[in-house]
Amino acid sequence: MDDRRLFTDAPAAPAANETEAALVRLWEEALQVRPVGRDDNFFELGGTSMLASRICAGVERVTGTRPSVHELFDTDTLADFALHVTAPAPGRALVTAA
Predict the structure, then answer these.
(1) Angle 18-31/78-86 helices, nearest 10 degrees?
(2) What contacts 85, CB < 8 A, 6 or more positions away?
(3) pLDDT one digit per residue (tens) for the chain, 98 residues
(4) Which has the closest alpha carbon to 36: 53, 52, 59, 46?
(5) Which of 47, 69, 73, 90 has the fewest CB atoms found within 10 Å of its own CB?
(6) Which CATH number is correct for 4-86, 1.10.3720.10, 1.10.287.3510, 1.10.1200.10, 3.30.2130.30?
(7) What is the domain partition of the chain in residue ranges?
(8) DSSP letters for 12-77
(9) pTM of the full structure
(10) Is 79 strand, coil or helix?
């Protein structure tokens, strides 16, 4: 059972763009939690360092750029992580997969 349903009947906030939608799918698959929304916190949904590594690898498959696990750890929500994924980071070139 999804623990979210134990605490609230509020629906998950929908993805605001394609990047967030792709992350929602990656998080749902890795965390085995549905639905995941843009305001959800990776760790509050049961995220671990192993799952973070899997998600970062998934981001690389989709975008061609692999964020660090620390970038996921340092964000509060899926929406915040999406900003990290799409923003150029010092020393990291954004390359999108064709």
Answers:
(1) 120
(2) 19, 23, 59, 63, 65, 67, 71
(3) 455 444 555 789 999 999 999 999 999 999 999 999 999 999 999 999 999 999 999 999 988 889 999 999 999 999 999 998 987 655 544 444 44
(4) 46
(5) 90
(6) 1.10.1200.10
(7) 4-86
(8) PPPPSSHHHHHHHHHHHHHHT-S---TT--TTTTT--HHHHHHHHHHHHHHHS----HHHHHT-SS
(9) 0.79
(10) helix
Residue 76: other Cβ atoms inside 10 A: 13
Distance separating alpha carbons of residues 14 and 7, to the nearest angstrom: 19
Please tell me whether the peptide bond between 14 and the residue prior to it is cis, using omega within 30 degrees of 0: no
Length, in residues, of the chain: 98
Alpha-carbon distance 12 to 71, whole Å? 23
